[in-house]
Prior knowledge:
Layout: E1 2-8, H1 13-22, E2 29-35, E3 42-46, E4 49-53, E5 56-65, H2 70-81, E6 90-95, H3 109-112
Antiparallel strand pairs: 1-5, 1-6, 2-5, 3-4
Amino acid sequence: MKKIEAYVRTEKLGEIKGILVKHNLNGVSIMQVMGCGTQKGWTGFVRGTEVDYNFLNKLKVEIVLLDEQVEAVVESIIEVDATGEFGDGKIFIYNVEDAIRIRTKERGDDAIK
């Protein structure tokens, strides 16, 4: 099992949810987060004073899935989120040692199907 953690543009939420349907995925966690990378935020003016906003709004998407699903899901995320501009985000992939569905006590792959 793997965990995909993707930081994507907030306006891509609908398309990200579509990926779940497309790949028959059962669960996802989506959080609103703020952060910065290469883009470094933006500069604005508040009451005539220049203010640096170092953090940008992003969505953090977490999905735990089977190993064989990872590449297809990653490609789908890239396809819907990429604009070619700074701020497109990042994807991290982690190994998941185990998963347990509390209701049924199923473990491993069965817990995430």
